[in-house]
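Example 278, ligand flavin-adenine dinucleotide.
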Amino acid sequence: MKPASFDYLRPATVADALAALAAGGDDARVIAGGQSLMPMLNMRLVQPRLLIDLGRLEELRTLRVEDGWLSVGAAVTQAEVLARRTLAQEVPLLAAALPWVGHFQTRNRGTLCGSVAHADPSAETPLCLVATGGEVVLRNLRRRRTVAAADFFLGPLTTVKAADEIVECIRFPLARPGSGHAFREQSMRHGDFAIAACAATVDGERASLAVGGVADRPTTRSWPLVAGGLPPDLDDALNAFAWDLGGDDDQHATARYRRDLVRRIGRTVLEEALSCRR
Ligand SMILES: Cc1cc2nc3c(=O)[nH]c(=O)nc-3n(C[C@H](O)[C@H](O)[C@H](O)COP(=O)(O)OP(=O)(O)OC[C@H]3O[C@@H](n4cnc5c(N)ncnc54)[C@H](O)[C@@H]3O)c2cc1C
C-alpha cells in the first residue's frame, strides 16, 4: 500500500521543527524512526499533509546522565541506547527490556521517545518508564514542561501531549544501590508486541510490578516487603491485580490467558528482582 501524498520537512533546528508543527496544526506530524508511523501512513490510518523529521536534529541526539537521571533525547535510537556500556548499571530494567523491542533492524531506526509518544499499551519502553518512575519532557514553541510517566499515558495511542508539543526527551531515574530489577514478557514470537509484559522492581522496603499489554496503558502496583521477603499472600495480591487490569480477548490471546500470565510471570519477575538486589 502507498501513503496519501504529504510534504516532507527536515528542519535544521528544534525551533524550526516546533514552528512548523504549530503552523501545521492537525495536518502536521513529526516523524522520528518511522517504525510505527510508516505502517500507519501506508495503511492510510493517518493522512497528515506535512511530516516533520526529527531524526537528524543534533540537538535531540542526547544520551547522558544528569542529576541522577538517564536522559534520552528524541533522535536517539533504541540500538544506540542498547549499545551503551553502562546501561545495565544505570537503568537495569531498560537494559533487560530493550532487546525485546522489535528486531535489530527496527531498533536501528526506532526511538524510545517515538515509542513513548506512540503509546502502544504493549510497548516495552513506556512500561519501563512507568515502572522506574520516569518522566517525559515535552516542548512546544513557548515552553517546556515535565510530566511524570504515570500521568502521561491516557489509553491506547493517547497521551497528555498536545498537538503542538514534541517529546524532547525521556528521563529514567538511575537505579539505587540495593535495588533489584527483572523483566519478562510473553509474545507470539520474539520481536512481536507483548501479549503481557511484566517489569518488577524491589527497592527499599517495597516490591513493585508494572504490567503492559493487558490494561489500556502500563499499570503499576506495589506491596511492602514482609521480613525482607515477598508478601506471603502474593498469589492473592497478583490475582487481584490481574483482575483489576481488565484486558480483552483479541486475536492474540484471551483475557483469561493474560490474567494467567500476570499471575505467573508477575511472581517470577518479583522473585528475580528480589534475588538480584545489588
Ligand atoms: C516489525 C516491527 C516490530 C516491532 N516490535 C515492537 C515491539 O516488540 N515492541 C515495541 O515497543 N515496539 C515495536 N515496534 C515499534 C517500534 O519500537 C517503533 O520504533 C516505536 O513504536 C516508535 O518509534 P519511532 O521512532 O519509530 O516513531 P515513529 O514511527 O516515527 O512515530 C510514532 C508516533 O510517535 C510520534 N512521534 C515520534 N517521535 C516523537 C517525538 N519525539 N515527539 C512527539 N511525537 C513523536 C509520531 O508523530 C507518530 O505518531 C515494532 C515495529 C516494527 C516495524
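Summary: The first strand starts at residue 7 and ends at 9.
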